[in-house]
Amino acid sequence: MTKEQSVELMTDKMAKFVAYVGKKLPDDVEAKLQELRQQETTPLATAIYDTMARNQKLAVDLNRPCCQDTGVLQFWVKCGVNFPLMGELEALLKEAVVRATFAAPLRHNSVETFDEVNTKRNVGKGTPTVFWDIVPDDDHCEIYTYMAGGGCTLPGKAMVLMPGMGYEGVTKFVLDQMTSYGLNACPPLLVGVGVATSVETAALLSKKALMRPLGSHNPNPRAAEMEKLLEDGINSIGLGPQGMSGKNSVMGVHIENTARHPSTIGVAVNVGCWSHRRGHVVFDKDLNATVTTHSGVQL
Ligand code: SF4
């Protein structure tokens, strides 16, 4: 295969994958929504969960996006230095988004800031956003595709706490944000929390936390305990499905962290909604694609 043929093949696969992610929720999110549905007893909460499930089925049956807001496309790329299309990746992901925009179709969500012009192709300056992790001695390329909708992006916030504010300060920051802006996203939410030194390190981690599978835990037992405590705390608000009240508010709370400067606690929160459209695909050097988030998908 020539380089051009390889680029075309991967672009086509990514365009199909992006379009698919907009229509079908990942397996873990579908399972979690069913689990939360079983815990509800009120007619309103159960009716909303049942409507969500019907919405999902219709999206697949009618081959349409499962939420009208298909978001701004974000890609988390973990790329081996020996992956053959590393240098072409950003351009081909952009082209894949354009193709998916017309094929899926996806809502036009890329407005050039300061010009206030919608490009109508879902691409623009810096969109789609591509975050990179480079892996030495490897020839695979893992790609997380994420659709950042407007509602689920609005509760995002980052700040740097005084060190004395401690873990209590982190808890207050997260709960203040959930009780004020949480409802801008459609619950049940997936809450990503980043704890690091500064606003940008914490913010990136808080979004990365949303890529983790539901039910996973931070490997540090204390951080994992804090995930559970935050989950219980946010659930006790009782947002319920679509914020109409219910037993739970969240599908989970994921904390990602780094070591930090002793004088600062950078903290950030990012939120995914019930329509948490993230997909994970792994390409080998021959461009065979394996989708891990959605069972039975061939690209
Ligand atoms: S918060 Fe999520 S489900 Fe609600 S409108 Fe936005 S993308 Fe759709």
From TrEMBL:
Keywords (A to Z) from UniProt: 4Fe-4S, Iron, Iron-sulfur, Lyase, Metal-binding
EC number(s) reported in the record: 4.2.1.32
Top EC category: lyase
Pfam families: Fumerase (PF05681)
GO molecular function: 4 iron, 4 sulfur cluster binding; L(+)-tartrate dehydratase activity; metal ion binding
Catalytic activity reported: (2R,3R)-tartrate = oxaloacetate + H2O
Cofactors demanded by this protein: iron-sulfur cluster
Domain Fe-S hydro-lyase tartrate dehydratase alpha-type catalytic, chain residue ranges per copy: 12-281
Record has Signal as a keyword: no
NCBIfam families recorded: PRK08230.1, ttdA_fumA_fumB
Assembly notes: Tetramer of two alpha and two beta subunits.
Protein family per UniProt: Belongs to the class-I fumarase family.
Protein name: L(+)-tartrate dehydratase subunit alpha
